[in-house]
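Re-run with default settings, no changes from the original entry. Doing this only to confirm the output is reproducible before filing.
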Amino acid sequence: MIEATTIQKESYKDMEDPALQGQGYEEEDEELLEIFFDFIRESLLELLKLIPPDSRRLVSDDLVDTAQMTIDSIVRATYYMDYSQVLRLLEEWEKSIGEEHKKGTLDRERFLELFNVYCRQLNQILPPLQLPFVPLA
């Protein structure tokens, strides 16, 4: 099992996030953002718990399905929040997992590489999200 770091939350009032600028925040908006970010964090941390410890084994069909369903559930929440940049990134991530699996190259290490790449990009788009990175090797 992969250990995940504790994620600290930032205030959403003072965000200078281009994906969120110009949207006039109310307390309800801040609460909704917090729920959205918590949902993403919790979904991805749960996904990490399913990754097998052996780095040479290919990821199972079940894990690929679960990963794609997890990302798809975040996609649906992102539609609701109307973040097109995040939506495109998540769809790309979901597609990458499927393509790597189809090519037979999706082992634990590659899965975690993709996880880190896309989490890093999500953190850049939505800085308060603060998703963890998983050490490789």
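The radius of gyration is 15 Å. Residues 1-16, 21-25 have pLDDT under 50 and may be disordered.
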